[in-house]
Specification:
Structural class: alpha+beta
Mean pLDDT: 86
Shape: rod-shaped
Radius of gyration: 35 Å
Low-confidence stretches: none
CATH class of the largest domain: Alpha Beta
Largest sheet: 4 strands, antiparallel
Number of domains: 2
CATH architecture of the largest domain: Roll
Order of helices and strands: HHEEHEEHHEEHEEHHHHH
CATH superfamily of the largest domain: Homing endonucleases
């Protein structure tokens, strides 16, 4: 089971005790994956389509608990994705369908179905608790969350921009900043920041998934810190080794060209010591000198040897 499916399984078992919150959650599901069929004699029926059995189970439970409606559930194969099943929760009776649409405020004042089952400006999301339930229903209907082991990406896919803007606005009321992008004629509300995803999981009341997400995030951060530290130490070692190799090359050139006898005593001492201890750090070299010298002092002497080697190389090439 994917991480996204585990979240939906947890949310499907979360049932708000208040009827108005149950209606808000159902309104989101109807708006994003519901279809209303109207017969020739103006009779309504509702179908809610989903590829997730837990979502179908949640719809069945909400309709039974909230409206005492027993629904039919049909299963068929997805013609585009042969391995997937599509579940349809059906409300066939006109009276039941009308009652659900009216409670979810998906009917206009004159009793007509709002275009695209629009929930924009819907009074069912006035209370904070109802907004939480609404976001939960929206995620169940058309949301997903990537495997946090790979990357962070939370999204809810909407058919219209108005619905996407509403979900973005509701998220903003919980201090969650979501963005919207158009993908294949759909409007996708998405979040990529780990902290924001943690917040929205908390808003939707998915504590188990939130804890799992946080644990993965902590481990990833620890691994990242260790990798950065190792890379930094490796870079420092490489830098130290490269510097030591160049220093030894310079010192050998000086020894073979003019000899150490021509050097001042401090330079002669550090030159001999560097050849004896090619792997030593500047600090270790300084501690071997008599009297001991700090890192800056050792670096100063080695730099003087480097300048001398540079002049000798210039003389060898005829001043070019």
């Amino acid at each position: 089971m994917s991480f996204s499916s585990r979240i939906k399984d947890e949310l499907s078992r979360q049932l708000s005790p208040a009827r108005h919150c149950q209606i808000a959650e159902l309104a989101a599901i109807l708006s994003l994956c519901g279809r209303v069929q109207i017969s020739g004699d103006n009779r309504y029926s509702i179908k809610i389509h989903t590829e997730n059995v837990t979502v179908a189970r949640k719809c069945f439970t909400l309709l039974k608990k909230t409206f005492n409606i027993s629904t039919d559930i049909s299963i068929r194969r997805n013609t585009h994705l042969k391995k997937n099943r599509v579940y349809a929760v059906c409300i066939k009776k006109h009276e039941d369908a009308f009652r659900v649409l009216k409670a979810a405020k998906l009917l206009s004042e004159d009793g007509e179905i709002r275009e695209n089952l629009s929930v924009v400006g819907n009074v069912v999301v006035q209370n904070p608790c109802c907004r939480r339930a609404f976001l939960r229903g929206a995620f169940l209907a058309s949301g997903s969350l990537s495997d946090p082991e790979k990357f962070y990406h939370f999204e809810v896919v909407c058919a219209t921009e108005a619905k996407a803007r509403q979900i973005q606005s509701i998220m903003a009321s919980f201090r969650t900043e979501a963005k919207i992008v158009i993908r294949k004629r759909h409007f996708v509300v998405y979040i990529k920041e780990g902290d924001q995803i943690v917040n929205i999981l908390n808003v939707m009341e998915a504590p188990l998934s939130l804890m799992e997400f946080e644990n993965i995030r902590i481990l990833k951060e620890m691994r990242g810190n260790v990798n950065r530290q190792v890379n930094c130490e490796t870079a420092n070692i490489n830098k130290t080794v490269s510097a030591a190799v160049k220093q030894i090359d310079d010192i050998i050139l000086i020894r073979d060209t003019i000899g150490f006898e021509e050097l001042p005593a401090p330079l002669c001492e550090i030159a001999r010591l560097r050849l004896e201890k090619p792997e030593a750090t500047l600090k270790e070299l300084g501690e071997e000198l008599k009297p001991p010298v700090g890192k800056s002092g050792v670096n100063h002497r080695l730099r003087k040897l480097s300048d001398l080697a540079k002049r000798l190389r210039t003389q060898e090439t005829g001043g070019l």
